[in-house]
Amino acid sequence: MTFELARWSEGDRAVMTLPLRIAGYDVDVAGVVNNAVYVRWLEDLRTCFMTRWLSFEESLARGLAPTLVRLEVDYRVALRMGDSVAGRLWFKEIARASALIETEILRSADGRVCAHALQTVCFVDQRRGRPVRIPEELRAALG
Q1: Which of 56, 58, 83, 105 could make a disulfide contact with 115, Cβ separation 3.0–4.6 Å?
Q2: Which fold has domain 3-142?
Q3: 3-state SS, residue 1
Q4: Residues 120, 126, 128, 134: what is their CA dihedral angle, to the nearest 10 degrees?
């Protein structure tokens, strides 16, 4: 995933839309996308979103590990080989040491939401193994 592919809309919140790809190894014998693929896409979306303000590499260099602490996915409509797909992500809530991310996986042809996810994330101090305040550049960008 490259940052250049992402589309951004700025208003009261930063919303990122990123095209996603279904590969041959993502589907079962019926041509349906495996549920585990959605989890990988969610990781790709979070990483791409964060890169705009604080890259994964920079975070680790500071001793901060971006960490997924909870994931809730509602699979609504099956995606199939040949479908054009996009992911849309935004921060729903941001607290002192955690944030709630909302994500939709969309079928591009009709805009139908095929999966909806809520993800709780935090940053963990790698030395102490404890959650820390959300980095300031992310906090400032997200309001």
Answers
A1: 105
A2: Thiol Ester Dehydrase; Chain A (3.10.129)
A3: coil
A4: -40
Radius of gyration, CA atoms only, the chain: 16
The tens place of each residue's pLDDT in the chain, 143 residues long, gives 444 556 666 565 678 999 999 999 999 999 999 999 999 999 999 999 888 888 889 999 999 999 999 999 999 999 999 999 999 999 999 999 999 999 999 999 999 999 999 999 999 999 999 999 999 888 877 76
- Residue 4 CB-density burial (10 A; 0-12 exposed, 13-18 middle, 19+ buried): exposed
Q: Match 């975070």 to its residue by tokens.
A: 59
Question: What residues contact residue 23 under an 8 Å CB cut-off, 6+ apart?
Answer: none
| Matching residue, tokens 């079928």 | 107
Both structure tokens of 109: 């042809």
